[in-house]
Amino acid sequence: MCVPRLSPTAGHSLPDRIARSCLALAGWLFSALVLAGLSTFSAAAAGNAPLLGYGYDPDREVDVELVLAVDISQSMDREEQEVQRAGYVAALTSPQVIDAIRYGPTGRIAVTYMEWGGAGEQFIVADWSVITDAPSAAAFAAKIAEAPLRQRQRTSIASALSQATAMVAANRFEGLRKVIDISGDGPNNQGGKVALFRDQAIAAGITINGLPLMMKSERDAWQSMLNVDAYYEDCVIGGPGHFFIPVRSREQFADAIRMKLVLEIAGLMPETALVHRASGRKPVNCGLYD
């Protein structure tokens, strides 16, 4: 700092000479700061550095990070898989879903479509994409429609939840909400305790919604006895605002998916429960099939 001081020989102050030095130094510092500011601004404008040192990226911001986790276990025959695929494609490109996206806080969602079977059998059919309008929705849906069908023997909801949770944590997006939308027609029978992986996802700030498939209940006594809807309610879904919509017929599939996606994208819940808990129903033993 420049401060006038007394000369030990002359016995008087030397303000003029020191003042000139201070002014020169101040001018040099001011010029350096201006040049540094202009350099930072130019770099930011060119996309080489964030303005004012902030790392905010609007391209990362979405209303919801949504994982569509779809069952391809052996109990899903080819016709049911085709109905399932067609239901997701129709729902994603429907005017209702597009409107739900458009009127969100940012007007953007990030979504990925994963198929799952047994432990370690998860397949990303359509990787993380941003949907903002009808064309981007159609492009994402086309990836689903064009992918080959797969089928796996076992049913590991635990592994599917684990993989979906990791996918949410690893993506580049910052969603106001994080949701795993999981469908299935049977209980977890491989890969660990389903309730444990459900609780880990919830602890990570993720809501799990369910689409229990009960289309075979009239034909297959074993599935009818399982009460897949009750199993999903007690053992699979959870988190803020969680819900599930059971599918009891192939004709209902597309409508159920569309309704579910609209509610998830808008951050809403059904006004009334879509399935009412039976009076006195015993809780499902979530570890019975693990």
- Biggest sheet, strands in spatial order? 3-2-1-4-5
The low-confidence runs, each spanning 5 or more residues with pLDDT under 50, are 1-15, 32-36, 38-46, 49-53
Sheet bearing the most strands, described?
5 strands, mixed
Helix content class:
40-55%
In one word, what is the shape? Answer: globular
Strand content: 15-25%
Structural class: alpha/beta
Give the mean pLDDT: 81
Round the Cα radius of gyration to an integer and report it.
Answer: 29 Å
Question: SSE string, helix = H, strand = E?
Answer: HEHHEEHHEHEHHH
Distance between the termini: 74 Å
Q: Describe the oligomeric state of these chains in a short phrase.
A: single chain
Number of strands: 5
- Tally of alpha and pi helices: 9
Walk me through this protein's architecture.
This protein has 9 helices and 5 strands; from the N terminus they run αβααββααβαβααα. With 290 residues, the protein is of the alpha/beta class. The chain has a 5-stranded mixed sheet, sandwiched between helices. A hairpin with a 5-residue loop joins strand 2 (109-116) and strand 3 (122-131). The longest helix is centred in the N-terminal third of the chain and has 31 residues, at 15-45. Mean pLDDT is 81; it is low at 1-15, 32-36, 38-46 and 49-53.
